[in-house]
C-alpha cells in the first residue's frame, strides 16, 4: 500500500474514507467532534443507535456522508481516554483495517493518531499505523494458482498531520515503512516451505537484498569454507541433509570502517525434522519456520540500510536443514566446534545451538560492540512464557536493558530469564567438554547457557523467539517478529 502524510484541512481531503477515533462514553476525538458539528450531531446519534460506547476495537462505518469529497467515515473505538495504552492503540488500528478492507474503499485518511497515547509521541503513532496496516493487509498467495484473483482495493493511506508536526510525521512514516517492508520480507521467506526456501535460497535472497542497497554487501560461505574455518558443530548438522549448508554474511557500512559493528546472528534452519532424534509428525510442517531468526536478521539489515542508520551492522545467518539420514549426527556423537570446545550430541534435535555456537565464534573477528542472536531455539520457551514475549538471556545487564527497552517501545516485547552459573552444571558431559542438552528442567535457559560458552568474549544477548515468530492454528503464518525489536534496538544505538 502507498502511505503518505497529508497536511490539508479536513474539507480539502481527497479520500474515500476518513478514519476517526472516539473514546468511551461516546466522547469524540477533536476532529471527530468538528465533523460531528458539521454533520449536526449525526456521528453521536449513529453511535447511540448502534449501542456503541467506545470500547477499544469497536468500529462503525458510515456510508454516503456527503461531506465535501468524503464518501465514508469510519469511527473506531479507543477505550477510556485517560488510559489509552500503546497496546490499546495498536488494537484500535487492527480494528480499523477490517471494515476498510471489506467496504471496498480505495483510499483512506486516518486521524487515529490525534488521540493521546500514554508515553508515546506522534512519530511512534504514525510508525505503528503503517506497521499495523501493512501487516494486516499482507497475504501470502505466491504458491496458489489463482494468486491475486481478489486483491484488496485499499491502495492508499494518508496520515493527516499538521504542518508543524511534519518532522515527526516524516520520521514515523520512514521508520514504519522500512520496518513494515522488512517484516513482510521475513514473513514471505518464512512462509515459503522447506522445499523452496533452502539454505542456498536464503543466501540468494540475502545477495539480492544487498544489490538493492549501496552500503550493504553480502557474502555467502559454502561448506568447504566452513570446513576451513573448523566449524565442526555447524557442519555436523548439515551432514544429514542433501542441501548444502550456508553461512550468510551481510555487512552494512553506515559509519567509518574503523567503527566497531553491532553483530546480529539469526538461526536459519530451513527445516528441522529433529534428525535421528526425529520429531513427532504432528505439526512438523511448522518446522519450516525454524529459519525465522535468520530471515529476520536479513530483513532487518535491509531496514537498517533503507533508513541509512549511521552505524555499522553485521548480520550472520548459519543456514542448514536438520534431517535424519545415514550421514546424520547420532546421539552420542562428539564434534569439535570452531572454538575448540568438544560437544557431545545427546539429542540431534538440539541442533540450533550447534549451528549458532560456531557462528558466535565467527562473530569474534568483528570485535563487536555487542552481539544479539535471535533463534527459534526451544519449545520450552513457549511453555515458560507463552506466545507473547520472546525469551531474553544476556551476559550483560546494560545490553539486556537496551533490548528490553527496544521491545517495549516497538511492541515486540521480551522477558528476561536468568543465566546463572548454577544452570551450567546441567550441560556436563562424561565424554566431551559439554553436552548439547541439559535435561528436562529449564530447557530455554540451558540452551542459553550452552550459547553463553561461546559468547564469553563480547557483550551478548540471546533472544528465543520460538513462541513469537509464527502463529499456529487457523491463521498459521509468520508474524514478522522479531524485526521490530531488532530494528528498534539499532535505531536506538544510532541515537
Ligand atoms: N526448532 C526447535 C525449537 C522449537 C520447537 C521451536 C517447537 C518452536 C516450536 C529446536 O531445534 C528444538 O528442536 N529444540 C528442542 C530442544 C531439546 C531437544 C533440548 C526442543 O525444544 O524440544
Ligand atoms: Mn530441533
Ligand atoms: Zn530447530
Secondary-structure map:
Elements: E1 2-6, E2 17-23, E3 27-28, H1 30-38, H2 42-49, E4 59-62, E5 72-77, H3 86-103, E6 107-110, H4 122-137, E7 156-160, H5 166-191, H6 199-211, E8 216-221, H7 223-229, H8 232-238, E9 246-253, E10 262-266, E11 268-272, H9 292-307, E12 312-322, E13 333-336, E14 342-345, H10 352-363, E15 370-375, H11 379-385, E16 390-394, H12 397-410, E17 414-416, H13 421-424, E18 434-435, H14 443-452, E19 460-464, E20 470-471, E21 477-478, H15 483-494
Parallel strand pairs: 1-7, 2-5, 2-6, 6-7, 10-12, 10-15, 11-12, 14-18, 15-19, 16-17
Antiparallel strand pairs: 2-3, 4-5, 8-9, 9-12, 13-14, 16-19, 20-21
Helix pairs in contact: 3-4, 4-5, 5-9, 6-9, 8-10, 9-15, 12-15
The protein binds ligand BES, manganese (II) ion (MN) and zinc ion.
Residues 269, 272, 290, 351-352 line the site of zinc ion.
Explain what the structure shows:
By secondary structure, the chain is an alpha/beta fold. It has 2 domains: 2-178, Leucine Aminopeptidase, subunit E, domain 1 (3-Layer(aba) Sandwich); 193-494, Zn peptidases (Aminopeptidase, 3-Layer(aba) Sandwich), CATH 3.40.630. The chain contains 15 helices and 21 strands. The strands form 4 sheets. Strands 8, 9, 10, 11, 12, 15, 16, 17 and 19 form a 9-stranded mixed sheet that branches. Strands 1, 2, 3, 4, 5, 6 and 7 form a 7-stranded mixed sheet that branches. A hairpin with a 5-residue loop joins strand 13 and strand 14. The longest helix is centred in the middle third of the chain and has 26 residues, at 166-191. The radius of gyration is 24 Å and the shape is elongated. The model has no long low-confidence stretch (mean pLDDT 96). The structure holds ligand BES, manganese (II) ion (MN) and zinc ion (ZN). Residues 272, 290, 347, 349-352, 376-380, 437, 443, 466 line the site of ligand BES.
